[in-house]
Amino acid sequence: MWSPPISLPSGSVNPPSPEAPRSAALFSLHDRNGAVELARALLARGDEIWATSGTCAFLRERGIAAREVAEVTGFPSLFDGRVKTLHPRVFGGLLADRSNPVHEAERLEYGIPRIDTLAVNLYPFEATVAREGATLEEALEQIDIGGVALIRAGAKNFAHVIVLVDPAQYAQALGARDDLGLRRAFATRAFERTAEYDSAIARYMEAGLLANELPGSLALTLPIASALRYGENPQSRAAFYLSRTERLPEQLGGKALSYNNLLDLDAALRLLVRAFPGGDGAVRAAIVKHTIPCGVAERPTGAQAASAALDADRISAYGGIVALDGPCDANAARALAGTFLEIVAAPSFDDDALALLRAKKALRIIRFEESLPARLARETRVRSALAGVLAEDDDPAAASETLRVVSKRQPSDGEWADLRFAWDVVRHVKSNGVVVARDRVTRGMCAGQTNRVSAVAIAAGRAGEFARGAACASDGFFPFADGLEAAADAGCTAIIAPQGSIRDAEVMAAADERNVALVFSTHRYFLH
């Protein structure tokens, strides 16, 4: 049975009951790990335990003398649990400033016990929306209202209330509950948690709602996933932050991942995404150094792909990161074992491959979900600039990319395969970027040049004799015919680039003069 709501005429006083405690601790928990131990310790200190209905039942079943919040407020849990704690007896106990005589007089007048400890964790909204097939109705029911309000109230009054939003905080809180600095640190984490939570809700609600617009407010509040030894260089400090709906790829061996490792791993995984499908289920191997591709290959097996990618530029591959989009078996591991590498990443490893790779104690072995590269390609891309953030994603209203042959000579089947492969790779090479590929292996790459003709010359020079009969891809259009001429003079017989130069006609004429197959794309792929 529940007590009817208390009605107080103006000026009336409702004194606390004789058994009212000096202070209370309020529990509202979805994750109840550590709750019993925390409650026992607080009871031993003389606190009374209040809890929302589900948490109260959990504690009572384990021998904890807890009062349900409904007993304190005089109201039951209403509307399928949507309203439980939203009551002055609860929020008064959290928000009253104990150093303010007026607040204390009002608290005592209305019989509101102090709440000195607040342990709250929120409905699992992030986990719910990450589940495949979750409906909007399910998501809405997992938006916590009272829990967020409790956390904000307790954190605002951290001078008097310690707020715990994570079971990992419980032991530290018990050891130093009267430490003002600790309470402030916990309050800071509490506000961070509510910001993360609201950001996750905003990201979910805006997804697909305004298909032709970017978010009105960029929600980037992410919990820390890992502290890092340092940033790009030892004099910088760094950490990695990740949404609760995402998971870091699983590390199966080697040293902890560094800041630069994470950047390079991201770049390597993006190279596994095929805009143009590779031949007949071929495995792709991608090698990255300082976020720049230095060897990419497609072959029938992982071992063949790894060997071909390494052979593309063994000097640059030293100290690089290798990612495979197929299983890493013992043969693939043997192909990689002879080169010093920072990371080997694949969607799966067999036992023999793991044994071979783990023999290199420092080598980081990463297993990632097969869907991860494609998810990375779809995400909103952000980077800091001018004390703000730039953001972009693929515009759903943009026209689809099309390729068209603009030369008199049509590419052969083999040239088409190499053109599509090179075009897949060049979009991940820093501008001005050029890729020379033959037999679906990169033979020469150049990134970050300030003029395109130099980028072509460097890439073709690195390809050497492999440029003969190769495909050449340029991430931007040729502003003059000289870039195409340099590729053709090096031996490239098929070239792909974006359209859009005022001298496109001159470039097309140069291709015909050299009997080169030239393909124009409607899209460019500058990468800064």
Key phrases:
Cytidine Deaminase, domain 2; Rossmann fold; disordered N terminus; 6-stranded mixed beta sheet; alpha/beta; 3 domains; 528 residues
In the predicted model, the low-confidence regions spanning at least 5 consecutive residues are 1-21
What is the molecular shape?
elongated
Distance between the termini: 66 Å
Structural class: alpha/beta
Classify the beta-strand content into a percent band: 15-25%
Strand order of the largest sheet: 8-13-12-11-9-10
Major beta sheet summary? 6 strands, mixed
Q: How many separate domains?
A: 3
State the helical fraction: 25-40%
- CATH topology of the largest domain: the name is Rossmann fold
- Indicate the radius of gyration in whole angstroms: 31 Å
Give the CATH superfamily of the largest domain: Methylglyoxal synthase-like domain
User: Per CATH, which architecture of the largest domain?
Assistant: 3-Layer(aba) Sandwich
DSSP helical segment count = 20
The number of strands is 21
Short description:
37% of the residues lie in helices and 20% in strands. With 528 residues, the chain is an alpha/beta fold.
